Every structure is written in C-alpha cells, then in structure tokens.
Amino acid sequence: MIRDVFPGIWFILPRFLFAVSYMIEVENLSKRYPAGLAVDSVTFSVKEGEIVGFLGPNGAGKTTTMRVLTGFLPPTSGTARVAGHDIVTHSNAARAAIGYLPESAAVYPEMRVREYLAFRARLEGVSGGAVRDRVAQAVDLCLLEEVASRKIENLSKGFRQRTALAAALVHQPPVLILDEPTIGLDPVQIIKIREMIRQLGRNRAVLLSTHILPEVEAVCDRVLIIDRGRIVAEGTPSELRLKLAGTPIVRASFRGEVAATEALSGLRGVASVDVVTGPEETRVRLTCLQGSDPREEVFRVAVERGWVLRELLKEGMTLEDVFVRLTQHEPSAPAAEPGGEAASAPPQGAQA
Amino acid sequence: MRKLFAIVGREWRAYFFSPLAYVILAAFLLVNGYIFAVIVNYLNNPMNAKSQALPFLFTNTFFWIFNLFFTPLIAMRLFAEERKAGTLEILLTSPVSEGTVVLGKFLGAVGFFLTLWLPTLVYVAILRSQTPIDLGPVAASYLGVALIGAYFLSIGTFASTLTKNQIVAAIVAFAIILVVFSMGLIENMVNDPSKRDVFAYFNLWDHMEDFTRGVVDTRRLVYYLSAMAFFLFLTAVSVAAKKETP
Which residues on chain B are in Cβ contact (under 8 Å) with A154? Predict the structure, then answer.
C-alpha cells in the first residue's frame, strides 16, 4: 500500500518528526542456527556521528548480529535498515553503505596494500578515476604510507589490521561496522586504532563490537550489552554505572584494635557497619545509603580518636562490574569481587 | 560490470602468486613441447599427410590427461581457499551479487587456463612458417579447447564451494569430470544406434576431433554452454546455501 508506493516512508517519517537520522535501525532481529537461537529479537539504532559499542562475552551474538547487518547471513526474523535500505529487500544498497571489518580481519595475503585497497574500492563500485584518490585517502587516514607497496603477508599484525580497516572505509561509507577492531594488537597500536575510530565516528555511524571493557570507555558514546543473544542493558558508560551501581560500600582499616562499631555506626549516610577485629588491624566495611559518601567523616573520626588510618576507599561500580553482573548466569553468586575506585585498569586491558 | 572485472582480474592475478600455477605451467609446457617434437618428427617423413600434423596437438592422450587432472587443480582454490581464510566474507558483504562473485571467479580461472595455452600459438606460428596450414581448423581447435576447459572448470568451481579443503575439492571435481568424460566413451561400447547417438552427444573426445577438423557444431556449443550454466548455477546456489551455516 503506502509502503509499496513509497517504501522509504518509515525511514523518512521519523527523520521529520525527530530530526535525527538513524543510520542503523534494527527491529526485533533474530537469527537461529541449527544449534539454537544466536540472536534473540534484538532492537537498537545508531545515529550519524555516534559510536556505539557492542559489548558481550564470547558467543553472545555480537558477530552474528553484525554478519546479519552486513548481509553475510540472512536474518531468521525481524528487520534492519542500514542508511534507510532494508538489509533483505535492498541488500545491495544496504551493503554499499557499510564499511565492514570482519572479526577475522581477513585480507588477501598475496596482494600489495595499495593494490588490495584498489581492488576493494572497485568491488564497492568506486568509479575508475576516483579509485586512486580514495586509496590514497585511506592510506593517509590509516597511516599506511610506509607499507603501501609491500605485500600484506609480510606485514606485522598491526599493519595488517590497519589494512583491513582501511579497506573497510576506502569507499567512504556512512556506516562502519567493526568486529573486534583491536584484537591481537599491542597497546600502542590499540591506542592508534582507537584514535582513528574516534575520528571516523565524527561524521559516521559506527557500530563496534568488543569484549574489552576499557575500549568501550575509551571510544564509545553509547554501549549495548548483549548476552546470550539478548540486549540486557543500554546507555552511556556512565549511565550504566549509575543505573546498576547499587549501594556504595566504604572499606577502611586501622592499626591495632579500635572500637570502630560504636564510633562509626552513628555517621550520617552509614546504614550498617561490619567489623573484623584482630590484634594487628581492625578492618571495617560500611554499607552506605544510596548517594552518600562518608569517607571524610571516617577520616575525621579517626583523627579525633587518634587512630592510625591505614586504608580508606569507596568501592564504585566499574563498567566491568556492571558487565559481570549482567552477564553472569548463576543467580546466587554476587557480582564478583568489585574493584576499588582506584583500580581503573582491569586486567583485560593488559591482555589485549 | 566494473565489479565483475575487478574480481576476474584479481582471481587471474592470484594464480601467479601461487607455486602451483608455475608447476602446472611447467608441466603443461613440457608435455606440449614433447607433443610438438612428435609433430615435427612426423612432418620429417615426406610420406605423411601434412594436414594430419597440427590436430595431433589437440587430440592426443596427453591433452585429455592434462584436462582431466589439471582443471580440478586450477579450480580447487576458487572458493575453498577463501572459505578457509575467511576472505569470502569480504566478497559476500560487498555490494556484489553471489552470481557476480561466482562468474568472476570462474572467468578468472578460465583466463588462467587460456593463459596456459597462449604459448602454444608459437607452435602454430613455427609450423605455419614451414608448411601451409589452414587457420580455420586451428581457430576451431582453440575454441574447442576453451569450451572443454571452461566446462571442466565450471565443475571445479562448483566442487570448490563444497568444502574448505582444496584437495577434497579437487578430488570431487575430478570424480565429476571423470563421470562426464567417460559417459561419452560408452558410445564405443554399445551397438544399439539410438543409444549410440545419445552417448555421442557427450563424447568429448569425438567433439574435439570435430573441432580440429574445423567443424563447429551448434549442438556442441549448446551442450557446453548449457552444462557450464548449469554448474555455475549450482555453484551460486551452493554459495547461497553455505551462508546459512557459516
């Protein structure tokens, strides 16, 4: 009916109403493998100029969702539009709007970097005369100048990854879908790639998957946490922390044996006090009311009473804790040992 | 169209980056060099008919052994290699239809096959400088070579989509090609003329002999082109089906 006459209406209409251009719109998308449901009615959207992080443990359905969006796998049900083109009915137009970096970052090893980029540009339909320019721009952007005439098989993993990224954006697509773009790189290269992605995200829609949490904090404007095929949380990294933070906990320890319970339980904002007393040290765990921070009070009490304060910290919820809490399946287990506020570099960062 | 040429060009060039291509090229030139020596030897005898010399290049046993064994080896990498390396994901997520990918890869392989035959034109030139040769049958012979080669390669292309393992792909292709080829040879084993006609339709060896005589029979063209189209269609279906279960 009206949709047949003017198929773009469902894309155009929201643009007029909200003046927002969604470059990726996913509606109740599901993908079933013979082994089971990999993606379970996922709905989200990404607008222009936004970098969205797709966060989830291995096997959560990140790669499958991306493969469906890029037309590599057909969806079992649901729809998605990329730059306004339906991924099933207008697959070619949708695919032309996407720059895709697959998880494997596969490239043809026997080709030279510039030659490979030119091949990808032609494959994307860049016209003959423009190929050289586009390749030169991609080489510039991804800092590949020094290796541009070398064979890809002789390049280091970092350059290979950058070549794959350059190939994904050589035709200057409005949408970038990057599946684990920093996997297997060294820390310096990771920082470079992240800077690059931030820069690219200014005038494009970027959907980026990762299981590395610092990456999300460093790069993404918004996070989708996916687990077992379902989106379990969505928001900016700080929103997610706030939403799922729970009650703040303050830990303190004092030298020797002190009467902590009596002194601290009266403080404003403290709900309960647990004390473990030993001859060497008294350890205190204060469960606080939502939004309160009694650390300064604790310090004042210690000074008044002449206690030697050895340790004082507030346990904030890092994104990692949020992630663990959301994707952990045993209902009885509490969110694993939460890191202190000071512990800002979770171990995953080092491993990458 | 530009996208198709991009794929054809890449596939054709990719052959020259693998050692296998040079082994095939060397083996091919060795065998054909030997055949050429036999032809020259034959022409040295003034009793022999000169018109019989050149067709021998296309109708000897080595010609068939080469086609039966080497076309599977040429085609085996087309999809199997890319599936193993994960690069197929790039092709299939580009704004290019599966049909274009299949056709591009197939034409790249045919291009390499024809490149193998290119040096043999030197033999024709040498023979022509020594003895009169009618170029019509020569052109028809090369057409026959191209058609039969492309036919076998279309089977190889299909087999290459079935597995990630190139060796398995080559063996499957060889098995199918062997069936297709030997079906025609049954012609010589049956006596019933109506049955003979049916098998004759598939008798590639006789077809090739016709081509070397300069006979370009439309029935042959229809057979090769439709068989090729059939296998390429199967290839596209197989590629699409594999998308379901990566």
Answer: none
